[in-house]
Structures are given as structure tokens and as C-alpha cells.
Here is the input.
Amino acid sequence: MRRIEQPGPPAPERIQWVEARGRAFAFTLQAGLPLLEAARRGFAAAGFAGGALNMRGGALGPFAYVMPALSKTGANAAFYSDTFRPDGVTRLKMGAMTLGTRDGAPFYHCHALWSEASGRLNGGHMLPEETIVAEPFEVEAFGIDGAMFAAELDPETNFKLFGPVSIAATGTKTSSRAFALRLRPNQDFAGALEGFCRQHGIFRAKIHGGVGSTIGAQFTDGSSTVPFATELAIRSGNITQGEGGALQAELDIALVDYLGGLAEGRLVRGDNPVLMTMELVLEVLEAGE
Here is the structure.
């Protein structure tokens, strides 16, 4: 399996996780607000401080983003490009967001694909400080109670990354058992999720959010992304039981690579290692759901 050497020592535990309770809901992002504040308000109105979010469309402007890039200093295995600020209104195709905290304040990690006003199709990492909701649009969210994603320095990658931490439950209305997860580098994306579910007696689960990176990508239709540095968002994801009861992670994703290539499709199980991180929320589904 492909592997990229990271600058720091690998942590013994390869999956960070916190069990919580959660609930799926939808809300409308308010126009004129920074995307971060619009998301925070939507979660807060439902009784949550954070969780995961998926976008199936939407309009942003002003808008700022970065793309994956090679590291100029060698301090990281890969890095970010300079900031881009396209003119006009940017139309989202899809995106995934993790809403948590950084330095004690609300913060998000968000990857998406979009169409710029010029007609250019692009993707990358949307910056919280400079991205404004241009028109109201609805999003799908999953709030978590008893866990939070918090940005902390990760010695392995030498980045400040979101990882799940335990917090006091507020008792807000929830409907499901859930796990906040962060997958560390150089392990197969699907295989890590399948192994985690086996260890925790989970037979069916739905993925909410899903923001991170893989070392290139191999898709079930035979296509591939060769450049190693990507920024990836999950379009949809499920853990199911296949033939003989074996667990299978079905991961439909979209990504941009450091050369600007875009790709979408279902990832091959067993051949898509994590590059830097992969954060998501697993909602445990009971029989019949």
C-alpha cells in the first residue's frame, strides 16, 4: 500500500475516537454571514456546539480557499497553496465540514468542489475567515453531544489538526449512538473504518461529514488520482454487512489534488491510505434503520 513518511513519530493509537450521542437535522445557512458563523448558529439552534455537515449545493461570495501543495520547507509531508479569492459568486457542487473549536473559539475544517463565476471548476479547503454565504441554502447536519472536535498540534504530521475530545454532555435531544473519529496517516481509509466497527460491535453505520486527505486515490470504476497530496470530502458513506457478514465501507468521495486535478467516485477498499488525517462522525444504525 502507498505510504508517505511523516515528519514526526507515529502515535501508537491509529484512530482517535470518542463515543457520543447525536442527531441528524437540516437547517438553512443565512445569507450575509461568514460561513463559520452561519454554521455555528444552525448547530446552536438545534442544541449542539459542533458536529459534521454536508452541502449538496449553495452560493458563496466573497470566497477564499487554498489547495493542497508540496511542502517548501520539508517541515510537513505536504502543505497548502497560496490563498485564492475568485471574483463573484461561487456555486458549490458539494462539500463536507467538521465544526469544532480552535484556540477556544468556533472553527471549521471544510473541503468542497465548486464552480467559480468565471466558469472554472475547482476544489479545495475553504477558509473560515474569508468565506461568506451569498444566498440562503439548506445543509444536512449531524450534531454530537458529549464529544467535540478540537484543533490540537499533531506531532506526527506537524499540523494543528481536528481530533475528537470528550466534553460534558448537555442533555440536548439526540436520537443515535455516535462516534467522533479521526484516522491517522498511512492506513487504508475503508479498512480502518471496518476494523473500528468490528471492534465496537457496529454492524451498520452512516458517515456524516468526512474531511481529510488520501495518498492519491483508486476508484472502483478503474480510474485513479496519481498526485499524492489531495483534499477530500465524503459525498456519502456507509458501513454495511456484505456476503458472509463481513463489514464493508462504501465511500463515495470528491477530491482535488495538488496539480489541480478533480476526481469523484467510490474508493476501492484496501487501496486508499490516509495522507494527513480523516475526520468524520459515525452514526450507529440499529436493525431496520
